[in-house]
Amino acid sequence: MRLPKYVCDYSLTNRCPVRKSAELRKAEIVATVLDLADGIGPDRVTTGAVASQIGVTQAALFRHFPTKDALWQAVAEHVAEGLALAWDGALNLGDGPLVRLRALIAAQFAQIAATPALPMLLFSRELNVTNAELRATFHGRLTTFHGLLATEIRTAQEAGVLRGDMPANDAAVLLTSLVQGVAIRWALGARDFDLRAEGLRLFDVQCRLLAAEGK
């Protein structure tokens, strides 16, 4: 990938600021939206606030994202890509289904800790009701995560590690609910505990409840 050709560098010439490529500017805008969503809540994020935070005009912002919906969709796709990469990495960490299951949960908590606005984005009524594409993107990611959990749970049941009298999909719902509950408690509270450590502690408790007899 070729680096963008800058017109000038403020730090070297002291005459004009660096001109960022469109790709870099879009990434900066998305990151700013996530920061603002974490600070003031996603429903209060405006294009004016984003432009002001970056130091550009709203007209400049709209050159990269023609509508507010398009901006939020870019944010959703960025978050979804990060989640997918984290899950892929988790599934490559070990051979046993419980190892992979725990790694998936750990990866999810790590992504939430890295993107604190994520729980609020998922449950923002304004965003999810008015932006169908955003809702579809987030719903698709949650469905994928549920499916990955269910697959590993089913494998663990077949291996006799987890009890087999509970449908794998139901057990996956319990684990996704655990993630959501801990994440919301962390996001809406003082964030005074280690999200990943607390989430994995409760995951281990849940696994003991789901363990097959004698395991």
Written overview of the protein:
The chain is mainly alpha-helical. The protein has eleven helices and no strands. Helix 2 packs across helix 3 and helix 5 packs antiparallel against helix 6. The protein is elongated and about 65 Å long. The N terminus is likely disordered.
Rounded Rg: 21 Å
Count the beta strands: 0
Order of helices and strands: HHHHHHHHHHH
Q: Beta-sheet strand percentage?
A: under 5%
Largest sheet features = none
Classify the oligomer: single chain
Low-confidence stretches: 1-17
Fraction of helical residues: over 70%
- Mean pLDDT, nearest integer? 88
What structural class do the secondary elements suggest? mainly alpha
- The CA-CA distance between the termini, in Å, is 51 Å
- What is the overall number of helices? 11
Task: Categorize the overall geometry.
Answer: elongated
Protein name: TetR/AcrR family transcriptional regulator
Keywords: DNA-binding, Transcription, Transcription regulation
Pfam family, one: TetR_N
Domain HTH tetR-type: 23-83
Key features?
disordered N terminus, mainly alpha, 215 residues, 0% strand
Task: Quickly describe the structure.
The protein is mainly α and 215 residues long. The chain has helices at 10-13, 22-40, 47-54, 58-64, 68-91, 97-114, 118-122, 125-130, 132-158, 168-188, 195-210.
Detail the topology: elements first, then pairings.
Elements: H1 10-13, H2 22-40, H3 47-54, H4 58-64, H5 68-91, H6 97-114, H7 118-122, H8 125-130, H9 132-158, H10 168-188, H11 195-210
Helix pairs in contact: 2-3, 2-5, 5-6, 5-9, 6-9, 6-11, 9-10, 10-11
